[in-house]
Amino acid sequence: MTPLTDHELRVLHLVALGRTHQQIADELVMTAKGVTPTVNRAIRKLGATNAPHAVHLAYQAGIFRRERHGDHAGYTAHLRRHETPCDDCAKGEIAYRAQRRGARRQSSQEAA
Fold first, then answer.
1. How many helices (H) and strands (E) are present in the chain, helices listed first?
2. Angle 105-108-109 from CA coordinates, rounded to 5°
3. Of residues 48 and 87, more confidently modeled
4. Are 60 and 48 in contact (CB under 8 A)?
């Protein structure tokens, strides 16, 4: 298996997230027509038959990891791996802490 370039990995990851070619193009500041050859190269390099198969093979090969994002569990998973949490996980952690603060306030008011 030929290693994927960083660009191919980014594009394939966005495919795995369910993005359309136009959404990928907008996010990576490229044309939608430029996404197709990149996806096709990733498919070929992974020995897949189509994009969903390429995503599956990337997970099987450990190129992608199944993990939670956008919540407290995803945030703590980043910290356990000594990574800076992604934006989605940081926002999820902020929402989690706000929810916990609200729950504590409510329980203290009920106790009073």
1. 6, 0
2. 85
3. 48
4. no
Render pLDDT for 21-76 as a digit per residue (tens, 0 to 9): 999 999 999 999 999 999 999 999 999 999 999 999 998 988 887 777 788 888 88
**Number of structural domains, the chain?**
2
The pTM of the whole model exceeds 0.85: no
Whether the Cβ atoms of residue 47 and residue 3 lie closer than 8 Å to each other? no
Query: What phi-psi label fits residue 47: left (phi over 0), alpha (psi between -120 and 50 degrees) or beta?
Result: left
Residue 94's identity, in one-letter code, is: I
* Same structural domain, 78 and 33: no
Per-chain mean pLDDT for the chain: 90
In a domain, 66, yes or no: no
The three-class DSSP label of residue 71 is: coil
Same-domain status, 28 and 54: yes
- Please enumerate in sequence order all residues whose Cβ is within 8 A of that of 49, keeping only pairs 6 or more positions apart, or say none: 43
